[in-house]
Design brief:
The complex is a heterodimer of chains A (592) and B (235).
Chain A: H1 28-33, H2 38-68, H3 78-114, H4 122-144, H5 173-201, H6 214-246, E1 256-257, E2 260-261, H7 269-302, H8 310-323, H9 339-367, H10 376-398, H11 401-407, H12 411-441, H13 447-473, H14 491-524, H15 588-591
Chain B: H1 2-20, H2 48-75, H3 88-112, H4 115-145, H5 154-186, H6 191-220, H7 222-234
Helix pairs in contact in B: 1-2, 2-5, 2-6, 3-4, 3-6, 4-5, 5-6
Bound molecules: protoporphyrin IX containing FE and copper (II) ion.
């Protein structure tokens, strides 16, 4: 794999750190099921995440059918609707996106892109997946538990989350939800330690931090954030579990329910909100930063140009990560707070927009006069940028206290966060899968199916969520399962709602086509070869494709350059792999 | 939530300090290596397992800091009645400190290569840590017997919650310590590995002792005065 020109006979200096000893599995079970190989774990994570994601997708259909054609599915009553919203939101944000970006892409890409043989703690890595699977199973079990899953909304705000008026509040629903979250967090922590420490310690020789692809920077920073933010959700979950099971009053105020004084007394729901959003806001960026990183690499590779402002991109990622820890309370404007704090949080929220905007500029400047190949990964990357820009603009409205108060809890908010947190990262997920599938399987995903998938998803998402902004401005509230004959809603809004629903069904169907493509191309896809995109990063330089256990054969790669040497003037090809040294003593300045 | 912000600020200092050494201002696009260049390993020379533990402790630290944050926020509300601290906790604290000292001593003996002393030290630390846990259970029983139930008052709830969480972490540490002990006993592990394992145990043990001391101060109410002072400073 080391493409050292034969003219060089200088010996490669010996490694000052020994190659790791690799765990070797001995049976089918430990190779494919209880595997400690990060690549297998990555695939396990991804498949589980996508399976549970399909559940969330089906739930969104059901909700949309109810909103567009109230009463069409008689089994959906108000309670069911709340349960669907909750499960849909929770699954999408945590069990799908977080798990896919960090557990899926993190596991697959970190060792390969950094030139390592595997993660540094493979056993903990394996446990991480199995705990995640257990968390998912507990979550699924809540659909079948008496009383069904919780219907408290994905924010799980107490007191209502544990009251009998909320579906699952006094049944199993909320308990299983909290237990599932706790398991997820423990599992994630095991995985997260791996991702962080592998980046710190597992890099190949010559792979300095500033030579890492931005994908890794994004995943790395997001993981650090997740490791620090998830404990807040853990604390909130444990305390709520105590309130629900042991009758404590951490969050539960004195409440009279159905004429009966509950045993709770004096607890503080606001305390929960603080803990929740201390996790919840960074969570947005935990999903966004890996997406930012991946998109940068997709754009650079498919526009055959180096990423514009690499250093700034790295700093922006780090700064966004740091700032997002001090803005959580902007989600609580409606809970009332000291105006001075309100001002502080509003300001920091707006400040985050600066590095974010910078990233968008840099992407656009990278594309500028690039040799843009409209491949599927590129299409999805472009779709991401457009969507993100859009969502960011509406976000500026919501970051503002004055505007947020009337709009909060309308469909405007729903449309906004679906654009930024839903559609945008999902576009990156798709782009990344189209990009790396050839490395994972050795085959290309089918192009025709891919193009249909792209256009339906991209245009469809806009047709779903653009009208939704408008409905929100009309004042249509979120989390309402039925409008009834409310006076302020004009009849045209009903038609619009029907339209949105039909689009949602079509977009959903396109995802089925995508899943089919994943299976179909595994056997019948075009042969991809080792480096179909002619990319520079290390994962494309493995001696065999798909990479075997241990990734690199006998010798670890050595890194000589950054990840973005595309279209270098004077070079024989329009890309130079990271493990290719400069042949002679002429430096880059002289060549150009 | 100011406690967790202070904790994060501390971490931010460490992270910044580390990043300052990583040449984040370099211009990688100008720095292409040649085949003859000694491409160097860029990670730290500290053992990877130790770095892993360090990162893990940061997470555990964040966890307990968040519990403490919640404690302070909840404490400000009207229905809070401080819980009397069982005298037994003093004894438990001493036992845990003893355990920590035992691991430290084991670590030193491991460095010197005295395997027999290591065996003894590991057993001693294991036993004292188990003693601590049993002591904590007795303290719980004492409180329950005196009529301080978990749901009666938020101070009680926090007491059981926080001591329970700490106990679980000690229990987790015991698993690691137990595995190290077994490995030393079997006698076929290389000395370097044993040293590292013992060192990791020591790190974890000291950390959990520190956490316990802070929690103890908190539960015993000494921290309240501190908070009071801070509050006055802020207003
Ligand atoms: C085809 C795509 C999707 C459709 C049609 C859809 C539809 C919906 C609908 C109808 C609601 C309930 C709105 C309300 O009445 O309050 C909702 C809520 C939500 N969705 Fe989606 N969604 C989609 C994709 C996603 C994705 C990819 C995410 C990932 C972040 C996501 C995250 C959420 C969240 C967090 C909520 C809020 C749940 C709550 O209020 O507790 N959705 N979605
Ligand atoms: Cu936020």
């Amino acid at each position: 794999m080391v493409n050292i020109p034969s003219s060089i006979d200088d010996p490669i200096p010996p490694a000052e750190v020994e190659d790791v000893e690799l765990y070797h599995s001995h049976s089918w079970w430990t190779t494919y099921v209880f595997s400690q190989d990060a690549k297998v774990i990555a695939i396990q994570y991804s498949m589980t995440a996508m399976s549970i994601g399909v559940v969330a997708l089906v739930l969104s259909w059901l909700m949309r059918i109810q909103l567009g054609f109230p009463g069409a599915l008689p089994f959906i009553d108000a309670e069911r609707y709340y349960q669907f919203i909750t499960m849909h939101g929770m699954i999408m944000v945590i069990y799908l996106l977080t798990a896919l970006f960090l557990g899926g892409f993190g596991n697959y890409l970190i060792p390969l892109m950094l030139g390592a043989r595997d993660m540094v703690f493979p056993y903990a890595n394996m446990l991480s997946y199995w705990l995640y699977l257990l968390a998912v199973l507990v979550l699924v079990a809540s659909f079948f538990a008496p009383g069904g899953p919780t219907g408290a909304g994905w924010t799980l705000y107490p007191p209502q989350a544990v009251l009998s008026g909320t579906p699952g509040g006094q049944d199993w629903g909320i308990i299983l939800m909290l237990v599932s979250l706790i398991l997820f967090i423990i599992g994630f922590t095991m995985g997260g330690l791996n991702y962080v420490v592998t980046v710190l310690q597992g890099r190949a020789r010559g792979m300095t931090l500033m030579r890492m692809p931005l994908t890794i920077w994004g995943i790395f920073t997001a993981t650090v954030m997740a490791l620090l933010a998830f404990p807040a959700l853990f604390v909130a979950s444990v305390m709520m579990l105590f309130d629900r099971l042991l009758g404590t009053s951490f969050f539960m105020p004195a409440i009279v329910e159905m004429g009966e004084q509950l045993k709770h007394n004096g607890g503080s729901p606001i305390l929960f909100q603080h803990l929740f959003w201390f996790f919840g806001h960074p969570e947005v960026y935990i999903v966004a930063l890996p997406a930012f990183g991946i998109v940068s690499d997709l754009i650079s590779t498919h526009a055959r140009k180096n990423i514009f402002g690499y250093r700034m991109m790295v700093w922006a990622i780090v700064i966004i990560g740091a700032l997002s820890f001090v803005v959580w309370a902007h989600h609580m404007y409606v809970s009332g707070m000291n105006p001075k704090f309100g001002f502080f949080f509003a300001t920091t929220t707006l400040i985050i927009a600066v590095p974010t905007a910078l990233k968008v500029y840099n992407w656009i400047l990278t594309l500028w006069r690039g040799d843009i190949h409209l491949t599927l990964p590129m299409l999805f990357a472009l779709a991401f940028i457009v969507t993100f820009l859009n969502g960011g603009l509406t976000g500026l409205f919501l970051g503002n206290v004055v505007v947020d108060v009337p709009l909060s809890d309308t469909l405007f908010v729903v449309a906004h966060f679906h654009m930024v947190m839903g559609v945008a990262p999902i576009m990156v997920v798709f782009g990344a899968i189209y990009h790396w599938y050839p490395k994972i399987t050795g085959r290309m995903l089918d192009e025709t199916m891919g193009r249909i998938h792209f256009w339906v998803t991209f245009l469809g998402a806009y047709l779903i969520f653009f009208p939704m902004h408008y409905l929100g401005l009309l004042g249509m509230p979120r989390r309402y399962y039925e409008m009834g004959e409310t006076a302020f809603v004009p009849p045209s809004a009903h038609t619009l709602n029907e339209f949105i629903t039909i689009m949602a069904l079509i977009v959903g169907a396109a995802q089925m086509l995508f899943l089919f493509n994943l299976f179909w191309s595994y056997r019948r896809g075009k042969d991809a070869g080792g480096n179909p995109w002619r990319a520079t990063t290390l994962e494309w330089q493995t001696p065999t494709t798909p990479p075997p256990h241990g990734n690199w054969g006998k010798d670890l790669p050595i890194v000589y350059r950054w990840a973005y040497d595309y279209s270098v003037p004077g070079a024989a090809e329009d890309f130079i792999p990271q493990n290719q040294p400069n042949p002679d003593r002429i430096s880059r300045e002289h060549m150009s | 939530m100011s406690v967790i912000l202070i904790f994060l600020a501390g971490l931010a200092v460490i992270i910044t300090w580390w990043m300052a050494q990583q040449r984040l201002t370099s211009k990688p696009w100008l720095e292409v290596g040649r085949a003859s260049d000694p491409a160097r390993y860029d990670g730290s020379s500290i053992p990877t397992a130790k770095i892993g533990l360090g990162v893990f402790l940061a997470v555990v630290g964040a966890l307990f800091t968040l519990f403490i944050s919640a404690y302070f926020m909840r404490m400000g509300l009207a229905d809070w009645w401080a819980i009397p601290i069982p005298g037994l906790l003093w004894a438990n604290t001493a036992v845990l400190a003893l355990s920590s000292m035992a691991v430290q001593w084991t670590k030193i003996e491991a460095q010197r290569g005295h395997i027999d002393a290591v065996k003894f030290g590991l057993l001693a630390s294991f036993a004292t840590a188990v003693g601590f846990l049993i002591g904590q259970l007795y303290a719980w029983r004492e409180l329950v017997a005196a009529g301080y139930f978990i749901a009666d008052n938020p101070a009680n709830s926090f007491f059981y919650l926080i001591t329970g969480m700490h106990g679980l972490h000690i229990l987790g540490g015991l698993v690691a310590l137990g595995r190290t002990t077994v490995r030393v006993w079997e006698g076929n592990a290389p000395l370097g590995k044993i040293r590292l394992s013992v060192e990791l145990c020591a790190m974890y043990w000291h950390f959990m002792l520190l956490v316990w001391l802070i929690l103890f101060a908190l539960l015993a109410g000494w921290a309240n005065d501190l908070v009071e002072i801070c509050r006055q400073l802020l207003t």
